[in-house]
Amino acid sequence: VVHQLEGVAVPASAREAEILAARVPGAVGPTLDALGASGAMVWVGAGSLGRTDGWVRLFTPEGLEAALADTPPPAVEDDVGAALLGHLAQRGACFLAELVRASGRDAETATAALFDLVWKGLVTNDTLAPLRAWVGGQRGARLAGGRWSLVHDRLLGPPPNATARAVHHATTLLQRWGVVSRDHIRHEAVAGGWASLAPVFGQLEDTGRARRGWFVDGLGSGQFALPGAVDRLRQARETRGLRWLSAVDPACLWGGVLAWPDPVDAPETARPSRVPDARVLLDGGRLLAWLGAGGKHLLRFDDEDATLDAITDGLRSRLGYRSLALDKLDGVAALEAPATERLVARGWQRDLRRLLLSRL
After folding, report:
1. What does the alpha-carbon distance between residue 319 and residue 321 come to, in Å, rounded to a whole number?
2. 253: how many CB neighbours lie within 10 A of its CB?
3. What sign for the dihedral angle of Cα 199, 200, 204, 207?
4. Sheet of 179-180: strands edge to edge?
5. Which H, E and C letters describe the chain, residue by residue?
6. Torsion, CA 249, CA 69, CA 39, CA 226, rounded to 10
7. How confident is the model over 92-126, as pLDDT tens digits?
8. What digits encode the pLDDT tens for the residues 199-255?
9. Residue 94 C-beta-side C-alpha neighbours within 13 Å
């Protein structure tokens, strides 16, 4: 799974509980920590998301070498951050207590500067324990766990050449998506774009490791697929069943590879977005609805009665909610939406300014 999702930036708050848990049964935290401690997996920050969250990428050692080959480290102007980088460059991997002493500041100031370096993609840790603690709101010495090191010190040897990097990117994309098009390359902002990978996909086709065709309607021409992926897609097309998916999950194509469809009965200002804690409801891969962060806003993408029933059933089965209170429905106040009466007929209840749905 780490290889399949290699290099994809996901919010740290959703990484284990939503993204990885949807793919790996059981507790994933201890397994991730063991992979990190053994050197088989490296996590790298890719930008902050407010005060307590940020984007994180997972890499295999080979994937990290390919990703960092053309990426010079960003400059650091903060004095505390510069002191931490200098100490790690001189001493190598260190525990948090040593870094706090080297910074000359208190633990909270030092760890805040340390996570500034994390989100810049400069510093990582052997385990994800400090990252979990940071997302959980802990600060200072409570972030202790594992050794901190410079990301670029994780490189095992000289960077791979351009051809090797292109082959790695192409094979990783095929493993991740099954079918790859120009839209996927654009969405993932691959350096060099489609032109840099098209020759590699052509070579994979010549050697039988990929197929060329037009497999998925709605994606551009020049699609490449893994052998067997198209047959699996045809089988999955006939599979029905409600499923919730995190809006920031790479498997949620909308808002990334595909544009969001227009919501039903919603003003132009009401648009879904890929934000942490937002969800999409699928029925066999068909997009039915988007539920905003906190479950306060519902947007529908189909106005059929059967779709309203499916959305109601899907919301009732939503784990973590004993009841759902909608403030907004289809971009307007919940009690003023065109679909309000139809939802009330399906068991929803009016409550002052909101629509309530209780679990059965």
Report:
1. 6
2. 21
3. positive
4. 179-180, 223-225, 211-213
5. CCCCCCCCCEEHHHHHHHHHCCCCCCCCHHHHHHHHHHCCCEEEEEEEECCCEEEEEEECHHHHHHHHCCCCCCCCCCHHHHHHHHHHHHHCCECHHHHHHHHCCCHHHHHHHHHHHHHCCCEEECCCHHHHHHHCCCCHHHHCCCCEEEHHHHCCCCCCCHHHHHHHHHHHHHHHHCEECHHHHHHCCCCCHHHHHHHHHHHHHHCCCCEEECCCCCCCCCEEECCCHHHHHHHHHCCCCEEEEECCCCCCCECCCECCCCCCCCCCCCCCCCCCCCEEEEECCEEEEEECHHHCEEEECCCCHHHHHHHHHHHHCCCCCCEEEECEECCEEHHHCCCHHHHHCCCCEEECCEEEEECC
6. 50
7. 889 999 999 988 888 889 999 999 999 999 999 99
8. 999 999 999 899 999 888 888 778 999 988 888 888 877 777 788 889 999 889 899
9. 20
Residue owning tokens 């893994």: 226
Spatial CB neighbours of 330, under 8 Å, sequence gap ≥ 6: 263, 264, 265, 266, 270, 298, 299, 300, 337, 338, 339
Q: How far apart are CA 140 and CA 132, in angstroms?
A: 13
Would you state the torsion angle of the CA atoms of residues 170, 178, 244, 43, taken in this order, to the nearest 10 degrees?
-30
- For the stretch 133-167, pLDDT in tens is 898 888 777 787 889 999 888 776 677 788 888 88
Q: Pseudo-torsion of CA 203, 209, 211, 217, nearest 10°?
A: -110
The pair of structure tokens assigned to 320 is: 């973590």
Side-chain half-sphere of 210: how many Cα atoms within 13 Å?
29
d(CA 5, CA 7): 6
Residue matched to tokens 């920590």: 33
Residue 304 pLDDT exceeds 70? yes
Nearest residue to 254 via CA among 221, 278, 234: 278
In terms of Cβ atoms closer than 10 Å to its own Cβ (0-12, 13-18, 19+), residue 279 is buried
pTM of the model: 0.84
